[in-house]
C-alpha cells in the first residue's frame, strides 16, 4: 500500500513562525486597550452630561420662579403697577433676588429677576427677565438659564 501524502515533520517551520504570534498578541492587546480607553472616556462624558442636564433643569426652575414672582409683583391686583418696574433696569431695588439654599434639591441656586417698562401712546409695555443660576460646589461648574416674557396693559 502506497501513501498518497507524505507527512514530513520539520522543525525549521516552527522556528520561522515563532515571532508572528508575538506580534499578533501585541496587536490584540493594543486594540483592546484602545477600546477600553474609549469606553471609559465615553462613560465619563456621559456622566458629565447628566450633571449639566440636572443643574440646567434646576437653574431653569429657579428662573421660572423668579419670573413668576416678578410678574405677580406687577400684575397682582386688578390693574398693573408700573411703579414695580424700572424704566431701564438699573434700579436694583426693584429686582427680585432670591437664594434657594433652604429648599432641598435647589441648594446653591439663585435667581435675579427684573422688569422694565416702556410707555407708548399711554400704554405700558413690560419686559420681564429672569436668570436662574446653579453652582456645583467644589467643581467650578456654574449653569445658568435665562427666561424673558413681554406684556402690556389691557386697554379698557
Structural topology:
Layout: H1 12-16, H2 18-74, E1 96-99, E2 109-120, E3 123-136, E4 141-152
Antiparallel strand pairs: 1-2, 2-3, 3-4
Describe this structure in words.
- By secondary structure, the chain is of the alpha+beta class.
- The chain has one domain.
- It has two helices and four strands; from the N terminus they run ααββββ.
- The chain has helices at 12-16, 18-74; strands at residues 96-99, 109-120, 123-136, 141-152.
- It has a four-stranded antiparallel sheet.
- Strand 2 (109-120) and strand 3 form a beta hairpin.
- It is rod-shaped, with a radius of gyration of 34 Å.
- It starts with 11 loop residues before the first helix and ends with a strand.
- The model has no long low-confidence stretch (mean pLDDT 82).
Strand order of the largest sheet: 1-2-3-4
Helix content: 25-40%
Q: Mind telling me the C-alpha Rg? A: 34 Å
Biggest sheet: strands, sense, closure?
4 strands, antiparallel
Strand share of the residues? 25-35%
- Order of SSEs, N→C? HHEEEE
Low-pLDDT regions: none
* Oligomeric organization of the protein chains: single chain
What is the β-strand count? 4
Mean pLDDT across all amino acids: 82
How many structural domains in the coordinates?
1
Number of alpha- plus pi-helical segments: 2
N-C termini distance: 120 Å
Structural class: alpha+beta
